[in-house]
Amino acid sequence: MTFHPSSKCRHCGTDLDLLVADLGATPVSNDYILAADRFAPERHYPLRAYCCRTCRLVQLEDFKKADELFREDYAYFSSVSSSWVAHASQYADAMSKRFGLSSTSTIVEVASNDGYLLQFFKAKSMQVLGVEPCKSVADYANHEKGINTRIEFFGEEVGRKLAAEGYQADLTAANNVLAHVPDINDFVAGFREILKPEGVATFEFPHLLNMIALNQFDTIYHEHFSYLSLIATKRILASQGLRVFDVEEINTHGGSLRLFACRADAAHPESPSVAAVMAKEEAAGLGEDAVYASFAARVVETKWKLLELLIDLKRQGKKIVGYGAPAKGNTLLNFCGVGHDFLDFTVDKSPQKQGMFLPGTRLDILAPEAIDAARPDYILILPWNIKDEVMEQLSHVRDWGCQFIVPIPVPAVI
Ligand SMILES: [Zn+2]
Fold it and tell me: For 405, how many CA atoms within 13 A lie in the half-sphere containing its CB?
């Protein structure tokens, strides 16, 4: 028996009662614990995803304000990821060519971070403007990279204001931000306000279809308010006067969509790919209730399977450690109740995380060399999306008979 909150859909206001995943109450996945706070208390929040039966927006129940979730001290700088910067460079070239952008064009990016993307448009002599709520990365963009950046939460009013100030956009970019905004209607309305009559808005976000098809329930965490399909997103954009005219399936973040939208009355012809992706989602059942209800059951089954596997190994006296400290790993470990009783520690390549502790489980995050000292029998790979890369890097552990465990899509020893 599941208790349903009185939350309403953040797009259309329908009561939410179709559960997609109940992951219990967990700490915020990115709140790594400092050594000094290791024995201090920690706040837990319910982590439940619902699907709206009317508009099909998959979303977390609404219970806290966005500003509690975006703490300054966990600022992430996009430029540290070389593959992400390369993705941005390719985007700038492709969009400039396709839409005939020139030195008279204006490009606006929302959630522009440290200017990792706009730098490529600036290099083409275009007018650029970043909008970024996180002060530390915005300051870096303004002062270190010379990328004109406003410290704001984007929405209808900000879009209108910036357009009036001369930033009417030929192209807007919004990468991996649509899922993070609490008021999705107001956010989307901002693009209608800031676009030129024939301007183009692009949105990139992880595709719900992959989460459902590949059992990626650990990608659900508090910072992600929405889990987006084309079915739902097209409808949300339309409600705010925007029309989706093209969509691309791209490889980032375990499978994403890039949507191209314009004002409802703009001339951009609709590409056949819009109908094709819609048909793919309909065929997978994303337009009906059943697939969401069966996902909720599969999440529980995955927990049982992982625990059966780990308990069996511990009863045989095996030593197990974790690899990685990604946000999704925290969802998995906290939901499954896998802590010091199963894993001796986890390791992470990022020096910022080493010496800290995982939220909830309080597992130590050590440097990867700790694996060689401990010589475990099994390594549980938390960032399963890069499992091949991890097994390649750690191939030497096979010398002492160590094996790998991957939790998703199905817990297995490989
Ligand atoms: Zn709805």
Answer: 22
